[in-house]
Amino acid sequence: MLLPMWLVSLLPAPLDIKYFTTLGRVWVHIYLPLIFCPVRVKGRQYFKSEGPYIIVCNHNSFVDIPATFYAIPDASKSLAKKEMVKTPIFGIMYRVGSVLVDRNDPESRKQSFVDMKEVLQQGVHMLLYPEGTRNKTDDPLKFFYDGAFSLAVETKKPILPTVIFNTRKILPVGKGFYAKPHKIDVHFLPPVEVDGLSMEELKEQVFNTMWDYIKLWQ
Fold first, then answer.
1. pTM for this one?
2. DSSP assignment of the chain, as one string?
């Protein structure tokens, strides 16, 4: 996939990310079944509405990334650490498929917020993991950071809560080149409109919705 991904990276936005995510979905629709990790998706009907979403997802494993590629039917970008572009082979994927940020640089964090707003203006979804890093606790979710909810309040774009199950069983924390076959479930929940909610109220509502849903299905 590297050559076609490199070629589409040369296209102007938003064509680059639209073709890139199409290629990515082709790859994961082959790759995940090949490693005996089939993906089951619920709630795709929510993508039939107009306008892009801020997709907010729990984060338990690196497998979450191909799982969301598989499940999201439209073009989307995620937020990634700037140093990920140095990763062999996968660096090009991060350059095209992500808004890059240096978390130690305040100016970079400000610019990433501007870049995410531009992505939404182009009609492309933003996928964010509000826990920041992978959840290594025994709780369903870690504390949420403000970024996704500040972005929603400022842009007035609805949030689509999303819950992924079983990826930690496939690639547990601390494992390297490892994958234990298991099915993956990706559930898109009803969108949450921003109107009338403060950033804190929005964050609390989405957190509680996802927490309750995870506890119900576990």
1. 0.92
2. -HHHHHHHTTSPTTHHHHHHHHHHHHHHHHHHHHTT--EEEE-GGGGGSSS--EEEE----TTHHHHHHHH--S-EEEEEEGGGGGSTTTHHHHHHHEEEE-TT-HHHHHHHHHHHHHHHHTT-EEEE-TTSS---SSSS-PPPPSHHHHHHHHHTPPEEEEEEESHHHHS-TT-SS------EEEEEPPPB--TT--HHHHHHHHHHHHHHHHHHH-
Tens-digit pLDDT profile for residues 86-118: 777 677 777 788 998 988 888 999 999 999 999
Closest to 58 measured CA to CA, from 152, 175, 140: 140
Q: How far is CA 133 from the centre of its chain?
A: 12
Contact by Cβ (8 Å): 126, 120: yes
